Every structure is written in C-alpha cells, then in structure tokens.
Automatic annotation (TrEMBL):
It is found in: Membrane. This is Uncharacterized protein. Its main location: membrane. The chain crosses the membrane at residues 44-61, 68-86, 92-113, 134-155. Pfam families: AA_permease_2. The keyword Membrane applies. Keywords: Membrane, Transmembrane, Transmembrane helix. It is a multi-pass membrane protein. One of its GO terms (molecular function) is transmembrane transporter activity.
Length: 167
C-alpha cells in the first residue's frame, strides 16, 4: 500500500483534492465526475443537517410536521447570518455548539451507566482456560492508547497530494 501511495505521490504535484487524484489517475472526465459528486456530497450534507436539526426542534418544541419548512428557513437564515458575521463569530458559535453537544453526550453516557448490563449485552469472550478473558488485547488502556493511530492513516491519505507538492 505504501508503495502504491509513493507511486501516486510522484504524479500529484498539486493540491487538487479527490478530483485531482481521480483526474491524474483515471482521466479528465472521471476527475470532473468526482468533482461534481464531491460538490453534491457537500450540498446533501448541508441539506441533511438542516433536516435533522429541524426534526429535533420539531420534537422538542412540538410544532408538528407541517411547520418543518418554517424551521428550514429559520435554520438556513441563522447559518447565513452566522457566516456573514465572519470567521471569529463562526468559531465562537462552533465552540459553543460543540461544548453543548459534548455536555449532553456526557450527561447521557453517565446517566445510562447504572442501567448497563455488560454480562447480558457485552460479555467478555472466553479465549482459553489459562488466559484471562478481556475485551481488548492488552486491556482497555492499551486499546485507547492505540486508538488514534488508525485515524492518522486516513489523515495522511487525504493529505497525500499536499505532501507530494513539497517533494
């Protein structure tokens, strides 16, 4: 895999994103299609986020399905206003939303721990009679210590063409 990446890196002296990789490796038309689908992906992601947020607001405030388009307009308008105010405002709003989401997630996790039945829903697999049964090889501490490293592979894969520009 690394040799394939190295071979691709020699053909990518630009920061073209996924469509640039497709253009170099598969041709101009395929690169164009990948760029179009990448744009569609971004648009559908935004549509989906607005739709889910409107469903949550509809459930919390109990307005009913017929007011969903009103929620869509309110959500899109607030997004546009936040982005129009500029970069610092966007980051502050993002930090507040992230902190609030993480707080709700932690409340949910710690509130549900007393109801968790690990013996029923997550039993430890029996390896051998001699070896202690554990969920993760090396235990949970080693698992969480090693968890970020597979993520770095994907970060490196995404920035492959940026690194190729410097070589």
């Amino acid at each position: 895999l690394l040799l394939c990446m190295a071979e691709l890196a020699s053909a990518l002296p630009f920061a073209g994103g996924a469509y640039g990789v497709a253009r170099v490796t598969l041709g101009s038309f395929v690169g164009f299609l990948v760029a179009c689908f990448d744009a569609y992906q971004s648009m559908f992601y935004a549509f989906f986020v607005v739709y889910v947020v409107s469903l949550v607001l509809e459930l919390v405030i109990d307005t009913g399905h017929r007011y969903l388009p009103v929620w869509w307009v309110i959500i899109y308008s607030s997004y546009i206003v936040i982005h129009a105010w500029g970069g610092k405002t966007c980051w502050v709003v993002l930090k507040v939303l992230t902190a609030g989401s993480m707080g709700l997630l932690l409340i949910y996790i710690f509130g549900c721990i007393k109801f968790a039945d690990f013996d029923k829903y997550a039993p430890m697999p029996a390896l051998d009679n001699d070896i202690e049964s554990v969920w993760f090889v090396g235990g949970a501490k080693l698992f969480f210590r090693a968890l970020p490293f597979p993520c770095f592979f994907f970060v490196g894969n995404e920035s492959l063409n940026l690194a190729a520009h410097d070589t």
